[in-house]
Amino acid sequence: MSTMNTVHSLWTMAAEPAGKIDSPHIEYAQLSPTLIVLGAAIIGVLAEAFVPRKSRYAVQIGIALLGFAAAFAAVIALAAGGHAKEEAQIAAMGAIAVDGPALFLQGTILLVALVAVFTFAERRLDPQEHGKHVDSFAAQGSAVPGGPAEQAAVKAGFTTTEVFPLLAFAVGGMLIFPAANDLLTLFIALEVFSLPLYVLCALARRKRLMSQEAAVKYFLLGAFSSAFFLFGVALLYGYAGTVSYAGIAEVVEGTRQASDPALAQTMGNDALLLIGGAMLLMGLLFKVGAVPFHQWTPDVYQGAPTPVTGFMAAATKVAAFGALLRLLYVVLPGLRWDWRPVMWGVAIATMVIGAILAVTQTDVKRLLAYSSVAHAGFILAGVTAATPDGISSVLFYLAAYSFVTLGAFAVVTLVRDAGGEATHLSKWAGLGRRSPLVAAVFAVFLLAFAGIPLTSGFAGKFAVFKAAAEGGATPLVVIGVISSAIAAFFYVRVIVLMFFSEPKPEGPSVVIPSVLTSTAIAVGVAVTLVLGLAPQYFLDLAGDAGVFVR
Amino acid sequence: MNPVNYLFLSALLFTIGAAGVLIRRNAIVVFMCVELMLNACNLAFVTFSRMHGNLDGQIIAFFTMVVAAAEVVVGLAIIVTVYRSRHSASVDDASLMKL
Fold it and tell me: What is the value of pTM for the model shown?
């Protein structure tokens, strides 16, 4: 009966005069990066409604760039103000953590988003249609492919400028995801960044059926995985009686007992904890594309418009690994002996299967998708370390990897034939003879993926494997190095194909991009080389940022 | 009545939903099964809220409803566009990208 009374008293307490309820205390300054990006997204939606169609493109790019740049400045200001270290705190009534890893990952996501805006805005790649420059997105997403409505939309020169607010909403969710400090915020952030991505996937200008198919697959599987995630949240709530990270961690470690003996059966029930934790991990591992939840990656990466693929591959991974780290290191450290073997298994399967399946691919985008699966495995190896070095090495790897991915997918948009992007590998034969610069840049990215010294990939892999070995996961490191070697085989195979085979006469041409895509690729190359040649400053930065606030 | 029975019901609904996602072939029905899973989560939240005697679970149930509504908007939009271009909402027909 005691539970009945407590519930009853809750209702009666709520009926007391409103004056006695303390209004929540929100630290707006600490939350400013997220607020700025979400504000920019809302202004973008308004601009879509009120700005004349002719000037929307320029206005939307301006809003997106300004928003992301201002948010990045806010992140830097917070970090300079010591919020990454001694001033780290939990803001917004326990919902959001403002600490080193959160700020580091938010900064990375914002830089990736800034570069992604350039690739989204590119309008020089497709041939002009009816005298107008067109971008990679459908003239009208709702029009039937090839139907009269689409022809009319193309003729009128429509463009889907909605992609910029959608991008901003996705980035807003991604900024919250690694900083969320309770499971409800985590779930809402997951949906806020997933839903715009589903829509973005469906909006390719060329190969629209494939793009829509990718969106349906991503949506159905994503919704399925988030339902599992939510049931995991429910079970952990049942286990601990709270969804705040600190509260659950206390119950896991046994420092907080059930206040009510009638609750002892539910609270601290290990079955709820283990099943709930596993379902939560399933949701997160789906988002990072780890085996056995990787099936969606190749199809979605191949079907989605390439700028979207590049953004998704880079930023989703950063956000999801951030959330995974916080969950494992803040909520479930007391369960370390249970989750480590599981993550070992997932990491090994992800590295090996990702690398082996990549060898069999014949499409550049699918190849990069499987390579991203393999990279998820390498990052998971760092996650299993369960040491401070594990956190900082994963942070560094994510920053290095995201710019390589963004750059590589930007190069993919340049190689075209009459049907749009020529993604089949056979068409890339001899590219190095026809356009040496583009092939050389792509080779740099592939070498970084392979982890060749003097590129960021090597520094990242070295940091991750070192942390894993020091965390006692030597077999994992051995398997990681072997699958790196397998992966290096197919990266080098593409380089050989580009430089040492005869170009076909009817092969694709390399389009000269505008300054937008050139900037994106240049940033990718620059970050790859700087992090490869002089990684120490950034390793120190990640090391300084590697402490979670509790 | 013992609230634990509602947890069993919620797990049962969740399992029916998950099985439906895996078995059914029409994208709309698959999507309805996902919604069933979300509602099973809601039932679990409300039951746990009752058992723990705090209101967190009931608040979360409201958030879940909003998220489910947003998901319906995006999901139906995508499924309907696919249906209009292919005249089929079967998930088996979506196989342009098989290896």
Answer: 0.94
